[in-house]
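Explain this one:

_____
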Amino acid sequence: MADVLDNSFKPLAFALFLLITIATLAISVYFSRRVRTAGHYYVAGGGVKWFVNGIAFAGDYLSAASFLGVAGMIAFSGYDGFMYGIGFLAGWIVALFLIAEPLRVMGKYTFADALVHKFKSKRVRLAAAISTLVVSVFYLIPQMVGAGTIVQPLIGLPYAWGVVIVGGVVILITATAGMVSTTWVQFIKGMLLLVAALGLTIAVLMLSGFGPVEFITHFLENGASDPTTGAFPAYSGDAFLSPGLKFTNPLDYASLALALILGTAALPHILIRYYTVPKPSDARKSTVVAIVAIGAFYLMTLYLGLGANYFAGQGSFLINDSNLSAPTLADFAGGEVFFAIISSIAFATILGTVSGLIMAAAGAIAHDLYTEIMGKKTTEKAALRVSKMTAVGVGVVAILLGIMAQGMNVAFLVGLAFAIAASANIPALICTLFWKRTTEKGVVAGIFTGLALSILLIVISPTMMTDAFFSLNNPGIVSIPAGFLVTMTVSLWEGRRGVPAA
C-alpha cells in the first residue's frame, strides 16, 4: 500500500522537533526556580491569570486524541468521528455551569481534596486517590500511543523510541517545575495548536477550491473515499455524514455521548487546573476561554478529517494509520516544511497533556496517599522530593503502557478513559456538591462501583474480546448510572439507619 509518509530521517522535521523539545525543557528549568512549596508544585501557587489558565485548559484538553485521533476518525468514519469532537466540547458546558466555581472553593491540590472538604474522611480520600490514579493511567495510554505514532514519520525513529522520548521529556518537566512549568507549556502549545489547525484548514479549502459550506456539500452530493485505498466513492454522502459507519448500535452513540459529556468534568488533570487561579470567578472565566478555543478547534478538525478523505487517492496520498491523517494531510498540502511544523506542534501537544496527567497522578500518590492517608509528617522540602519521585515513577509506567498499546486509535482510547472517569468521579462529585443527603459510605461505594464496573465492561466488550459478553464499545450508558444509583442508594440506606450526612 502506498503512503505519502515514510519513516526516513527528515532534517527539517528533526530540527523543529529538537527546537520544541529544548524550548520545553528550558521553560521547565526557568520556572523550577519558583517552586518552593507543595502549593507551587501542584497548583502553581494559585496565581495563574484566568486567560492564561483558559488557554492552558485548551492546551491540556486538546490532546493527541483531538489533533491526531479525532481528525483520523472523521477521515475514516465521517459523522461517527465528529461525534467525538461534539462530545468533547459539550462536556465543557457541564464543567462551566456545575463544576468550575464550587470546585475552586472546595479544593486545594487534588480531586480528593474537594470531596474531603465536606466529608473529612480518609476512606473518601483513598477512594478518590485510587480513582485519580486509574483514570490518569488510562488517559496516559492514548497520549503515549500518539507520541510513538507521530515520532516515526517525524524523525525516523521506531514507535517505541517515540514513547520513550516523550516520557523522558515529561518526566524532566514534572520532576523539576511541576504545575508552573506545565501551565506555560500548555499555554504555548495551546496557542500553537490553534494556529496550526487554522493554517491547515485554510490550506484544505484553498487546495480543494471550495468554500467552508461548499466543501461539506461536496461530500453530501458526491460521497466519500476510502482513505486506505483512495477508492471513490467508497461511501455515499448520506452514509458518510450520517451515523452508522463505526457505531452500528444506537446505544453505542448514547453511551459514547454520555461518557464524553460527563467525562470532561471528571478528569483529574482538568479538575486540578481549577485550583491554579486566584478566585472562584476566575475559574468560570477560564472555562469560558477554554470553551471558545476548544470549540473553534473542533470545528477545524471537521475540515482536517474531511480534507484527508477528500485528497486520498490523489497522487501518492493514502493513509494506513488513522492517527496520521492530519500529518499526512499537512505533508500533501505543504510538503516537508508544513509536515514538520504540524507534526512538531502535535508532539508539543502530547507533551503538555502528559505533563498534566502525571501531575494529577503524582498528587494522588504523594499528597493524598503518602501525606494525608499514611500520615507522613514531612517538611515542604521532603514533600516536594516525594512528589517528584512519584512523577518519575508514573512516567515510567506510562512509557511501558504506551509501548504495549501500539496501533490503537487514540480518540477511541480516550473515549474509554472518559467513560471510566465519568463513572467513578461524576456521581461522587455531583452528589457531594448538590445533594445534602450524600454520605461518606455512599461516595466511597459509588466511586468503586463506577470504577470497577466500567473497567469490567471494557474488558468483556468488543474492544477486548472477539466473542464479547457486553455488546457496546463504550460502557458509559451502564456504568455511569450505576455509579449514581449506588451512591444514592447507600446514602439513603445510611440515612434510614440514622447515619447523618456530612
Notes: The CA atoms of residues 164 and 399 lie 6 Å apart. The chain has one domain: 11-406. The radius of gyration is 22 Å. The mean pLDDT is 83.
